[in-house]
Amino acid sequence: MRPLDLIIRNGTVATASDVFRADIGIAGGRIVEIAERIEGDAAVVDATGKYVLPGGIDSHVHVSQPSGEGIVMADDFESGTRSALYGGNTTVMPFCLQEKGKSLREALKAYHALAEGNCYTDISFHLIVNDPTEAVLGQELPALVRDGYASLKVFMTYEDLRLSDAEILKTLDVARETGATVMVHCENEDAIRFLIEKHEAAGDVAPRAHASTRPAAVEREATHRALTLAEIVDVPVVIVHVSNGQSMEEIARARSRGIEVIGETCPQYLVLTADDLSGMDWEGAKFVCSPPPRDKAAQQDCWRGIETGVFDLFSSDHCPFRYDDERGKLNPKGRRSFRHIPNGIPGVETRMPILFSEGVMKGRIDLPRFVALTATNHARTYGLYPQKGTIAIGADADLAIWDPQAKRTIRHADLHDGADYSPYEGLEITGWPTTVILGGRVMICDGELIGRKGDGAYRPAAARTTAFPAKA
Ligand code: URP
Ligand code: ZN
Ligand code: ZN
Ligand code: ZN
Q1: What angle do CA 367, 371, 372 make, to 5 degrees?
Q2: Which residues does the record list as N6-carboxylysine (modified residue) (predicted)?
Q3: Could you report the predicted ipTM of this complex, rounded to two decimals?
Q4: Atom of ligand 1 nearest to the CA of 343
Q5: Which of 227, 276, 286, 289 could share a disulfide with 254, CB 3.0–4.6 Å?
Q6: Is the pTM of this model over 0.95?
């Protein structure tokens, strides 16, 4: 047997199904041994008193993506994946945006060039289909799915991104034929435009109006429509960043009709509310994202979805813009009306600590459910399992060692992304990942970065061969 490179000793190991005491032996970047006691003269990481979990997979992350109005994101692949790594992630799935009039391959070439040699975690792309021409849907997309680009996102909102129902149907049909997995952003753009015009006409232009012009009904209707389109085509679908109970009911109802649907929610819907958008002096702009955070009742509903299985995925939807410039503090246009504030908030580093602290430590979910929601189900949904997302013989040695006693207060100054604030500033957290291992390489050791950019690599994804592989 090949000698071990690294042994993780004395930890409490958790997967999506079990929690057990074991040592883990690593060779050639993979897990090769799991046993009560592993001897040998390999390097040792002592995990006494700690949890050893699969490295987090954040399957909803935006970096280096141009936003409308020429605004630049605060994170590139280097800072975004570094921040992700500090938050216990070993794989992130950023989006690759097709520009109108251009091909998907052109977009991929540009994003690969940005990512190459710059990542601290492994990455795998989702395509954003923004110009579904016959050539794109007929030839390009099927070839790309075969080449390992097996997931894509379509938008029902944003003037520059929305697809018509006809375009969504055609895209879903290609997914059915090829085994691609489709994520849908569900908000009714026409209803939002109608409400924005009303609010602007009434002089209601502050950040809070962002939430008022995107009420739950706008999301519920679009969720129902997306699920109906998927039902008509007969293809599984992922409903991303679900913010409220009404949309959850649509998912549950669709499931009862036999539709295969994966539900995703995010930290902002568990710990923020629309009141956060009311901050004085344009501070509310720090919380503008779509769908917007809602009220305490919606938070409770989303927690119920985390606990009961309406949600399979817990992602950050990390989409960072600096407050000082892009969000409008110094940007006169952004300051004129909420409609010019770029949508999206940072959170790739705080995603798992928030769910660990608020979920596991407060007794809402157990450790296997935490692992399923933050790693295993992402790998299963997007074609990276079982290489990623679990602790098993032969899997990549992507691990995060968590100190369940660590107490921290979230301060942006302690985070590692490129934004200039955290929407979770001041939130008290119990439990934090202290050591992070990527493909057998110790990247963060007791909170200190020792890995280098370029240690993370691109990982192709497999297309679905059945309906969704069984969920954890
Ligand atoms: O406001 C958000 N969520 N921005 C990121 C883009 C998206 O829709 O996921
Ligand atoms: Zn979205
Ligand atoms: Zn997003
Ligand atoms: Zn930051």
Answers
A1: 115
A2: 153
A3: 0.92
A4: 1
A5: 227
A6: yes
